[in-house]
Design goal:
By secondary structure, the protein is of the alpha/beta class. It is built from 13 helices and twelve strands. The protein has one domain: Rossmann fold, CATH 3.40.50. α10 links the parallel β11 and β12.
């Protein structure tokens, strides 16, 4: 996975063809709601195993490899909550893919973006609580969203199964960039609730899900969520974005996330929940491209992003920068935010 280059022409042509044929951009979700499909798409099945060409052949593993075509890949995971509280975010991300990929391709320092989409629900009650794509660099990125099920479920406990997604990333992804180049990837959890306190084998829900049925794993004992996030952050810089529009208040759930993250400032509130792509592009432009915050906002506006969403992303990015309102300062390796990028290059 991960070969090729994303094309806005291909994206537009496919979207136009679907519109002409009366097919929803998120056609798999439409088929799910119509009862035409009942299971996770093969494109997003967490149990899909690596192929024969992989060193992990026959096991569940998502890889970012260094290749001649992509010698400096930048691993990026966007993990979207698709429960009833904020599942519309997947449609927003899909609509903004041209601007997101366009700005990443144009800004220097963001080498060979490799994007994975993940969709998270509640394993105690949702029919499809986890959907996981591959790391892709071409228009297979579009296919991940087009094949997602937006179940819109979730429970009433103010918790969703984010720790299940974090576990998958921590134990079932391999970033060659970490071992070979000393460069971590990036994970963005768009989440308005908290994790469950631990990952268990049996989710004890009426859907009958187990860790084995969803991923194929069986634990010797439950893993505390804090341990999962500690493992996750060995390979990734992890961010949490809380949509301000959610009926769940950030003040109630943000302290939970800040305890899980190596840097508490990586948990921020998005005043405009449609600004996910703007935040992701802006953060990477600062961390990998070395841009200041005002330069980032200009670049996002020039790329066609909505100015209101750009402003919201800028406000959140300023908090990531240290809480003093500047936010655009890009620090060297000894920077206070501790974000790992290429050794010797600028980062947040």
């Amino acid at each position: 996975m991960g070969s090729g280059t994303w094309s806005s022409v291909s994206y537009t042509a496919a979207s136009t063809a679907r519109a002409d044929a009366g097919i929803d951009d998120m056609h798999y979700d439409a088929d799910y709601r119509a009862g035409k499909v009942t299971t996770v798409s093969p494109v997003l099945d967490p149990k899909v195993k690596a192929g024969t060409a992989s060193p992990f052949a026959g096991t569940v593993m998502r890889e970012v490899a260094i290749t001649t075509e992509h010698p400096n890949p930048t691993p990026i995971v966007i993990a979207l909550d698709v429960t009833g509280s904020n599942y519309r975010g997947a449609r927003i991300v899909h609509a903004k893919l041209p601007q997101l990929l366009g700005v990443l391709q144009r800004i220097g320092g963001i080498e060979d973006p490799q994007i994975m989409l993940m969709f998270i629900g509640d394993a105690t009650c949702d029919e499809i609580p986890l959907q996981v794509g591959q790391f892709e660099s071409d228009n297979k990125i579009d296919e991940m969203i087009e094949n997602a099920i937006l179940e819109g479920g979730g429970g009433g406990s103010s918790q969703e199964s984010y720790e299940l997604g974090a576990y998958f990333l921590a134990y079932h992804t391999k970033l060659e960039t970490v071992d070979t180049q000393g460069r971590k990837g990036y994970v963005f959890f768009i989440a308005d609730e908290t994790n469950y306190p631990e990952l268990v084998n049996d989710f004890r829900g009426y859907r009958g899900h187990t860790l084995e049925s969803l991923i194929g794993d069986k634990l010797e004992k439950a893993i505390p969520t804090a341990d999962i996030y500690a493992k996750l952050q060995e390979q990734y810089n992890v961010f949490h974005l809380h949509p301000a529009s959610s009926h769940y208040k950030a003040k109630d759930h943000q302290p939970h996330w800040r305890k899980l993250l190596e840097n508490p400032e990586h948990s921020v509130v998005l005043e405009d929940d449609s600004a996910v792509c703007e935040f992701v592009a802006g953060l990477l432009a600062m961390a990998e491209g070395g841009l200041e915050l005002d330069e980032v906002q200009d670049a996002l506006t020039d790329s066609g992003f909505d100015p209101v969403a750009v402003a919201a992303a800028g406000a959140a990015l300023s908090k990531v920068g240290g809480g003093d309102g500047s936010g655009g300062t890009v620090a060297k390796t000894e920077g206070s935010l501790g974000m790992d990028s290429t050794t010797g290059t600028d980062r947040l």
